[in-house]
Amino acid sequence: MKKLPVPHPFLFAVFPVLFLYAHNATLIPPGEIVMPLVIVTGFSLCTTLLLTLLVRDRMKCAVILSLFLLLFFSYGHVIRALPNFHFTVKSLNLGPDEFVFPVWCGLLFLGTYATIGTRRSLHTLTRVLNVAAVVLVTIQLAGAMYAFASRPTTAVVRQITTADSAHAQVLPDIYYIVLDGYGRADVLKEIYNYDNSEFLDFLQEKGFQVANDSRANYCQTTLSLASTLNLDYLHRLAYFDRRSKDRRPVTQWLKSNRVFDLVKHHGYTLVAFASGYTATEFTDADSYLSPGLTLSEFNNILLTTTPLPFVLRMGKTQYDLHRERISYILAKLPHVDEGASPRLVFAHIIAPHPPFVFGKNGEPVARKRLFNFSDGSYYYAEGGAFDEYVNGYRNQVAYVNRRLRTTIDGILSDAKDNPPVIILQGDHGPGAYLDWYNLPQTNLKERFSILNAYYLPRAHDDLIYNEISPVNTFRIIFNQYLGAKLQLLPDECYYTTWSRPYHFFNVTDPERLPPFPGELE
Prior knowledge:
Elements: H1 8-22, H2 34-55, H3 58-81, E1 87-89, E2 92-94, H4 96-117, H5 123-149, E3 174-179, H6 185-192, H7 197-206, E4 209-210, H8 221-229, H9 234-237, H10 248-255, H11 258-265, E5 269-273, E6 287-289, H12 297-303, H13 308-311, H14 318-332, E7 343-349, H15 377-381, H16 386-413, E8 421-425, H17 444-448, E9 452-455, H18 473-481, E10 494-495, E11 505-506
Helix pairs in contact: 1-2, 1-3, 1-5, 2-3, 3-4, 7-16, 8-10, 14-16
């Protein structure tokens, strides 16, 4: 009877995936781990078969593969733990990767050589590794299953009464373009030394109404968009435990939002672009548009635990994929032919928000750091510098502005008979002075002041007021185009820390800030 492969390499292969999911289960849907699990299991099986042909000792093959997996998935953690040093030797730019990678290769070579050359029995070592692997995987499975079992139920969305679309005017397409972290003109001038008047003049010449004093309702993307797309403040939508770290409730409000439900009721086709950000990946839209190979937020994080980002620097990196996704959205928006009109086109563009992947002329920019979407104090914790943030943000705004001109011209020229509604909106402002755990040390004006511009065909020029916030965006649009009679809400701002997303601090009036209890962990 042919012996089965030793199990510990397969368990060590799935452990990093389960570990990452178990520690991020409140942020990541369980479906995200299926493909990584298939890949690591398939890799382990193929490698086991190949090593068996070469070594012809299944225990030695298993030890070699487990050593490889240990080194492979610990690589990024070691890089992150080291100082982000860089220096040049004879035109070679050396950093942590250039030192750790050869050391890891050397350890793999020595371990493989010692394993193949040993004459000792590996039965005891194999039993120890099997037991250790089973224990590690069992702990992560228990954590993942508990997180999955305790997932919140989807909240019931309150209905909005609107006029029957059959009796309404010809319904326009709606383009909701979210520019992540795009700040207001005065903030760009004061903090980033960037004059945005040329771009705003362009918008106004095209017929946009620009809310010059607009502020975001929340300082985090998921909170902000869940509020905007449900036309209400989160604390009015449902009860959220302010001590909770679980982001799944608000993500469900975002995924099953009132705006999408209502426009579908009126015959709209939903078109959504791949964003790369899990919370805004509307893969169940009528048309889901992606530039091809795209990595989810979970896959990006998992990839940074391995040496692949360093190895792939000579090819297509995570920075390249992110750059391609942004370019794809901006190029494709004027030519959305999928589905019948009227359409609601949703595009969440993670720019000018970090990572900064474009220079001011569109030239590629990549950092010798692990790829992530960190902002504010987390950006600095990952090795970023203040001047780097300011310059990177300013350059990315300049490039995005140039591309947006072409995008907007294309959208308007392709829809002359029935002009669309276009919303250009920041979900929150920039984060050079954002502290995720300290309200008093955060520049609230910077974080909450946003670009907010509307192209509203057949609407009065004074429909948009200067202080409008995103929570009232679709209230105005539905009143104007779908015959709704929704009253506008007060325009309020709520700061929350990253670890306590539902502990809301009303910061609408900076002169009367609520008491802040210090760092909330």
